[in-house]
Design a protein that fits this description.
Layout lengths: L11 H10 L3 E5 L4 H11 L10 E2 L11 H8 L3 E3 L3 H13 L4 E5 L5 H6 L2 E5 L5 H6 L2 E3 L4 H42 L7 H19 L23 H28 L4 H18 L20 H19 L1 H6 L7 H11 L1 H13 L11 E4 L2
Parallel strand pairs: 1-3, 1-7, 2-3, 4-5, 4-7, 5-6
Helix pairs in contact: 1-7, 7-8, 7-9, 8-10, 8-11, 9-10, 9-13, 10-13
Length: 380
Amino acid sequence: MVGFLDPPRTDIKDAISACHSAGIRIVMITGDHPMTALNIAKKVGITALEDNKVIAGSELPEMELLGDEWKERILSTTVFARTTPKQKLEIVDVYQKAGYIVAMTGDGVNDAPALKKADVGIAMGLRGTQVAKETASIVLKDDSFTSISQAVAHGREIFQNIQRFVIYLVSCNLSEIFIVTLLGFFAQGSMLFPLQILFLNMVTDVFPALALGLGKGDSTIMQRPPRDPRMDIVSSRNWMVILIYALMMTCSVLLSIFLCRIYVGSDVRVINNVAFLTLASSQLFHVFNMSSLHSGMLGNEVTKNKFVWIALLLCFFLIVVVYLFQQSRDALNLDIIPFQAWVLAGLSSMLPLVLVQLYKLVFEKRSIPGRSKKTLVRPA
């Protein structure tokens, strides 16, 4: 007698657990014997140890004869065995019609129809056939399910970074619009000059935004439900957040102007410089508001991003350099201002950061938005 043992990879259980935490359901569709499929599914955590539910291909009726009861049974089952290529295709179709987003893995010629039908087809790069590779949307070079889990996490990080990039840039630019408009009505003499605004756009906006785009994402990114694929990159809620951020930075500049008139003087040149420094500093400090609401105030994905610190040091260095040379000061209509004015600008610029961090401290245990459906269908 000869026995064969083809055990699961040691890292597969952790990868499947990570997918479950991320709201992704794993389904095994295989041509193996039902007991073999069920045993492997229990070992790797696809199904619970006490769950003995498995559907063999011989039990499945034709697609045209599938009633609501059979569809519910298919959707509640995680292990399918002795299935034909046609049945794999039909199971994928049932999930899609139920509103799920289906990612299908496969390596053989018989998997090609299901790979084509799925929303995301994933072919094995090492043992996969050429037909499967050409049909799939993605080719997995190491044939490891762990790579799929890591790719999901990386994709979520990219989406999150794009959101932060857009929210940061738009909120900073919107604050400049508000400030220029308000100063034009109420303090024309201290209005920001065009070259000052250009300096802000080229320096204090761009470098921190680029640094945010290089972030690693927060540690809970694989503990959240999938986002709705129909959701915009900048949702209506994000636009409200952008507006609030812009108003807070605007208020910090107005506060610095008000305090400057009281404690420093009414010289319009000094007030202009204070407004410029406050806006520049508030935009730089604002980058720390881009961390997740449920993350810590000090140890979060933004503070751990070395590129953010490099960008901030570079921006503050450029601001200091501008003030050091007479030619650059003249170009930007800047003057040597009293030490009190620098202190007022620095303290006022921290207003948006302090307010947002206080909000996080109070409301960090907020509810997570509802889950959207997402399934990863995996044949053995």
